[in-house]
């Protein structure tokens, strides 16, 4: 029965029951005239009159009564069936079949089973714990729960639990005659119990996170390989080696001492000890030398931090691998611990003395700081921290996204602490407020009129100079309000807490509260307000001035919000930064859109067909990626792309092609789908994998790509783990033997092509550097692409058809690995002038 026939019979039953067209139409939800036409169509199709109609009533004919008698039981059965199905909507019931990886089934999910069954008594759980590549659909599973991002094509993955933390553990018996590893690299010298994935049969490297964003993969060695994590656990308990286990699996055995964790506390505990040393040493100093002021040691500590900060990128990182750095750090930490122990022993022998302060401007020893004073300590410290982070974010996103430029604001921040707390402080209560007023006015005007600071030679000194003066005011006022030594612990606690709160606001809260970097003008407004509070006792002229300055900074904030949204149709922000979609018109008044992350353009597209199908920006037909994709045209191709942007490369897709994009920022995927049409318009099949591209590729079987494009190096935050020897080995595993690896090396501040040259030479792959110019009218940007391939036919075509550039390798440039990289060696000379990115 067709749908139209069923609708006609439904309409007839309604009229026959209601004996009224108006009431039946209201019951069904259609117009009476439409209902009348439906009944007339049914009668014409059957050739029988079913209803007698008068101006006052409607009644079934004899044929209608007979049809009604047959239809009523059938429709009642349909209603009962629908109601039975609705029970599933109102109250979950039935059997839920789930396919799970064994670690999930026995770990995070096991503890949820009893509460789930109690909450849903009508549901039966049918769980299959298997990590092999069972098909979810053919196995008639409702869902599959797995670790990582390993999914079949055309399936959707949704995170349901937090990241699973992994631990390296071994038994005390195993470590009896062996040194405990201190770094991930040390694991290579140990017997590691390796795991073979039932998913793809591969033995994957172990993953670690060094710092906040640097991920490390270690290809461990060991003579025992298992495909069962519980067998790995039992083997580790028996002393067979070091196992890589989840937190849930390892915790019970760590608690009772049968397993010893390694690496997990190798950084956290020493860092806590280091951070607590400065107040402790100052307290010992105050006890040993009554009447002396210990706060100059805080200046010395910050100066030492400044020297360490500057020495690392310029002296240590270029000369030492990560493993060598860890050994050096460990040796220095042992020396530090020895010196601290000696100092503690000497301090123990010093009798406690009554401490009085002789320094001017310091509270008397007997005075206890009031709550208002403590609140000022907290506010001044928080303001300095917010200034540092907001100015750094503004410089890196909106001024000059230069790698390592973040070192300069942090160095100035540490320098202000050194100058403020030095014995001969340079802080002047008469001079500093006047300099602060100049700094806030200059920074406010730079935000109000960005054209004033478009060139780097103006913008970077201006913002860094403003940061220096503002932080010197905050830290100078802190130094002037320092208490007697017996209260220094509370003083440093407030400073630490304020710094943490300021960092939490800018780093964690602001990305969720603001769609753009509005915290920078907001921090300037708070700085002005704090100056009004601090200088309030100076009299009415400073009060009036700083209240007016606060109002002016608030006006700058409002204008900044307005200016940022000009020509902007979408703003979004998360942990990875702020994204903006602008809509403009070209020289022919044709509309187009651009996607920006700060000042870095990540894609553009014309809105009107047929120009909307044209690849733009760095992906034009004359670019290295465009030339490679043109070579692959004519036959179905598989293309992988690390870095989605606006999805521009999908413009090269044809029917039968497959494009697989890897993107770490989920907001980019949302914007590419909704604000641009490349992904929607392409006839090719498109998949998007969200997450770190290297980790995603490592978890997948070989994709056999014809082309793998790496496009993640245009900004300031270079993901160096995508440009190492180990990363290239992973890329080649996913390429066909004659596949092409295309590396986008366009970067204003870094010369990445020599790095790629060394990596390709190490893997014995030929390469070519392809450059193209820009064409503003076609939204085409100049780009550099390095094409790495063993496809001799493609290389021969390039020799005859495409201009190529020579790669010049800097002296002493070393091969980048997961254990070594050095951005400083490949920095380009700064080109002064207006930014071309926006």
The biggest beta sheet, please? 7 strands, mixed
The proportion of residues in beta strands is 15-25%
* Rg, Å, rounded: 34 Å
**How would the global form be characterised?**
globular
- CA-CA gap between termini: 61 Å
Based on helices, strands and strand pairing, what is the structural class?
A: alpha/beta
Count the E strands.
23
How many H/I helical runs? 26
List low-pLDDT spans.
265-269, 353-366, 832-838
Helical residue percent band: 40-55%
Mean pLDDT: 83
Strand order across the largest sheet: 19-18-17-20-21-23-22
List the main descriptive attributes of the protein structure presented here.
838 residues; alpha/beta; 7-stranded mixed beta sheet; 4-stranded antiparallel beta sheet; 23 strands; globular
Describe this protein's structure.
- This protein has 26 helices and 23 strands.
- Mean pLDDT is 83; it is low at 265-269, 353-366 and 832-838.
- Strands 19-18-17-20-21-23-22 form a 7-stranded mixed β-sheet, sandwiched between helices. Strands 13-14-15-16 form a 4-stranded antiparallel β-sheet, covered by helices on one side. It has a 3-stranded parallel β-sheet with strand order 4-3-5.
- 45% of the residues lie in helices and 15% in strands.
- Helix 2 crosses helix 3 (32-46).
- Helix 24 links the parallel strand 20 (705-710) and strand 21 (735-744).
- The protein starts with a helix and ends in a 37-residue tail after the last helix.
- It is an alpha/beta fold and 838 residues long.
